[in-house]
Design brief:
heterotrimer; A mainly alpha; B mainly alpha; C mainly alpha; B: mainly alpha; 8 helices; C: mainly alpha; about 80% helix
């Protein structure tokens, strides 16, 4: 009975935010970090709704996924550039050898 | 009606609603949006079934009948019994267009569960029980062990003639 | 009682997501959390606008999951500079 007193929207959102932040800090690859960032967004909207700021919650729910999409476009672009550079470097070494 | 019995009955009804409507509309056959194929191949690599994997990928990446069922139950709880379901069906339809998904699985699921919620309100099942029941149904499909639940979904797809042709 | 059930499901899925090995497994658990947070917001704010917020949050989170899954397929193994 005591534990179930603590399960309301505020505490669940705080727990999700903490788990999401631990995931972002501990995991090393960028796309894993973006997945944990999605978890953090869920907790964030929940916490704003628990504080009854409903219009702010609506704005956060609409704009957070748009920012995730922009971040993913950047990650894809950077990875393509790095792969192309690695390919060029291995081709040059092939010529020298 | 006792709350726990009501939640169990609502869980069974919503499980059947979303699995049968999704399988009938062809979700295990092919990945509807681009992200679903990645998740399907990932589940296949971990020992699951490919058609079940495409089903799970379609649940994650596009608003399908599972989304329609949950959002119609939320709408009926907060707005009122038939009106809430229709509001949710319209918003799910917009979501389908935004995701560039070619099907109507979400809207169909939302409308059928609205009819079921309206009918079972005479027995004593409230929309709150349908919200909890739908969460339990999603937990059994996506929260426990993905390869075994994808094999179960693949068996249901084969029985309804919607198994995938892709290797 | 309904909020406690949904809250326990969310926390269970979040812990499994942190401890998962494969990326596609994490995406499926993220979808469970999206369902759960949407239900929890609607159950807490019991007015019509709460339902609209929950539905909008769910549809946009599905869109972002679609984008993440597409990038997982596009970038199969990233190159990180500090190893």
């Amino acid at each position: 009975m005591l534990i179930t007193d603590f399960i309301n929207l505020t505490y669940v959102s705080v727990a999700i935010i903490i788990i999401g932040s631990i995931g972002i800090i501990v995991l090393s690859k960028p796309i894993d970090k973006v997945i944990m960032f999605g978890l953090l967004q869920g907790g964030f909207v929940g916490m704003i709704a628990a504080a009854k700021y409903l219009d702010v919650a609506m704005a956060a729910a609409i704009f957070d996924p748009i920012s995730t999409i922009i971040l993913l476009i950047a990650i894809i672009k950077l990875d393509e550039i790095r792969k192309k550079k690695q390919q060029q470097k291995s081709q040059e070494e092939g010529f020298i050898v | 009606m006792n709350e726990i019995i009501g939640i169990i009955i609502a869980a069974v009804i919503s499980w059947l609603n979303f699995v049968l409507i999704d399988t009938w509309m062809g979700l295990p056959e092919a990945p509807g949006v681009k992200g679903a194929e990645v998740i399907g191949r990932g589940i296949q690599k971990r020992g699951g079934d490919l058609a079940g994997g495409f089903f799970q990928g379609n649940i994650v990446c596009s608003p399908d009948a599972s989304a329609g069922t949950l959002l119609a139950a939320i709408g009926c709880f907060a707005i009122g019994i038939p009106e809430g379901g229709f509001v949710a069906a319209i918003l799910v339809f917009f979501g389908n267009r935004i995701c560039a998904d070619p099907g109507y699985a979400g809207t169909t699921g939302a409308l059928t569960i609205t009819v079921i919620i309206a009918a079972t309100s005479y027995i004593g099942l409230t929309p709150e029980m349908f919200i909890a029941g739908m969460m339990i149904a999603i937990l059994t499909i996506q929260g426990l062990h993905h390869p075994s639940s994808s094999k179960l979904l693949g068996k249901i797809a084969k029985k309804m003639g919607r198994y995938t042709e892709i290797k | 009682m309904i909020m406690e059930i949904v809250g326990i499901i969310i926390l269970f899925a979040a812990v499994r997501m942190l401890l998962a090995q494969d990326r596609t497994e994490r995406m499926v658990y993220l979808n469970v959390i999206g369902f759960g947070m949407s239900a929890l917001i609607a159950l807490y704010i019991q007015t019509s606008f709460g339902a609209i917020i929950a539905i909008t949050y769910f549809v946009m989170s599905t869109l972002s999951s679609n984008a993440i899954a597409y990038s997982i397929g596009r970038v199969k193994d990233e190159i990180i500079l500090d190893e």
